[in-house]
Amino acid sequence: MNYSKRVFLATAAALVAGSSAHAADLPLKAKAVEYVKICSLYGAGFYYIPGTDTCIKLGGYVRADLILNSNSDYDAGNNGVVGARNRLGNYYTTRSRADLNVDTRTATEYGVLRTYADVVYSWTSGGYAGAGTTATNGATAYSGAPAGTNGSGAVAGGSLGVYLAFIQFAGFTMGKAISQFSAPWTNYPANNFDGLPGGGGFVTGVNQFTYTADFGQGVTAAFSAQDQVAYGTTNVWNVSGATAAGLATGSYGASDIGGSRSPDLVAMVRVDQAWGLFQASFAAHDNHAGYYGATEDTGHPADKWGWAGQLALSIKNIPTGAGDTVNVQGVYTNGASRYNFNDLMSTTYAMYGGTGVAGAYQSLGIGGLSDSVFVAGSGQQLTTTYGFRGGYTHNWDPQWNTGVYGAWGAVRYNSTAKGYVCGAFVTALALSSGATGCNPDFNYGVVGLITRWSPVKNLTFSADLAYVMLDQKYAGGSTVILPAQASIAKPGATYELKDQNTVTLMLRAQRNW
């Protein structure tokens, strides 16, 4: 018994010793996982970045568009091959887009430090550059995606766009953001279609340095310096360089925009309340031209400052239904036309149609938009524009709503500028009514109807029908003789100058997340 007991105790001691040795070899216990926490400081969708006091929110959308009767996803068929109304224009254009936006916020002793970025990748169906001669059947040359100011039209139809990328700190906004001049609904008082005159746009952002003061009770004011070269300028035309080929497309001179000298200066005051909002905006725009001729020794016109003013009003939850909204705005510009005809719109118009004038081949609606015009040896003559846009959205129920909208923009040249343009126009195109029938002023209007269906949250199908009108001011019945235009397959012939119109239908499916 004593022997057996000693063996048992020795075996037990050995087992304990072995277990202790193995335990010493095991790794230390891992720290508890730090799970992502909800950040409720800045609204729904924000989470703390693990290990930091910074909150982040990810969002975006995927969108598919089908546009009928336009070569563009964002404008009507008012120039180029689609304005020619012949076999070279697209009956439809398609676009697919993926968007990602990232919003980060951190509380500091100076207020919230915010960064925001919105990046999109778009794939747009191809168009055609014009009539070609390399094939026996006269096939046109494939041009890839239609080019545009929002970054579309790169190789193979794909494009990467950085719409917004800015830092906000202590009341300052630095980077690419929507212009402080624009109303909160930018181009969309009730619509998806981009081609509305009547107010500032800059929906794809513009580089700026802005200070915003918050006075409380929903009252804010902003003062901004923003880039004007790419986004804030339409045309600065040297009419001495006008050609028959250019005039036939609505280009009233040689493009003569000089390099940047000053940013656009913008001021804005907004009152934002439960009933809606009111906003007043002002912008100053420096028109800086190049030279009268090809070299610097030919001289140049002096800079001339233009300006734009805008009033905007939104009324929410009107008696017609819960969530119903009316958005309206009006604008006046002098030498700053981009604040009326937004940065996604065309600045030259050449729309063809039928004619009843004997001897005329077809009719043509023509117009040209500029910030200023001049001739060699003269000063700049600033172009005046004014207009409005507005929309009403009615919610039938939580899944269906309908919007009606309209916009109108007027372009007016002063008497000196008309003399410059008409001198070139009458001579180069043999205007039948002469100088007395020449008037480069025009109006541009849009009316539209959109219906949206959201069968489930954050998924929307929409149909947006827009009717566009070009109202030119050349004397009725006037004709011009145009040169042959190979790019749109138009022959050299006599054309009647006449008002034109077109219809565009946009069908869209969009999933937000």
How many separate structural domains?
Answer: 1
Radius of gyration: 30 Å
- Counted by DSSP, the helix tally is 4
Q: Tell me about the largest β-sheet.
A: 16 strands, antiparallel, barrel
**CATH superfamily membership, which one?**
Porin
Question: Quick one: how many beta strands?
Answer: 27
What is the structural class? mainly beta
What is the CATH class name? Mainly Beta
In the CATH hierarchy, the architecture is Beta Barrel
The helix fraction, in percent, is: under 10%
Instruction: Give the overall pLDDT as a whole number.
Output: 89
Q: CATH topology, which one?
A: Porin
Describe the structure.
Helices cover about 10% and strands about 45% of the residues. Strand 23 and strand 24 (about 460-470) form a beta hairpin. It is mainly β and about 525 residues long. The protein has helices at about 1-25, 80-85, 245, 415-430, and strands at about 45-50, 55-70, 90-110, 110-125, 125-130, 140-145, 160-170, 170-175, 205-215, 220-225, 235-240, 255, 265-275, 275-285, 305-315, 325-335, 350-355, 360-370, 370-375, 380, 385-395, 400-410, 440-455, 460-470, 480, 495, 500-510. It has four helices and 27 strands. Residues about 10-15, about 20-25 and about 130-155 have low confidence and may be disordered. Strands 2-3-4-7-8-9-10-13-14-15-16-21-22-23-24-27 form a 16-stranded antiparallel β-barrel. Strands 12-11-19-20 form a four-stranded mixed beta sheet, with helices on one face. The radius of gyration is 30 Å and the shape is globular. It starts with a helix and ends with a strand. It has one domain (about 55-510): Porin, CATH 2.40.160.10.
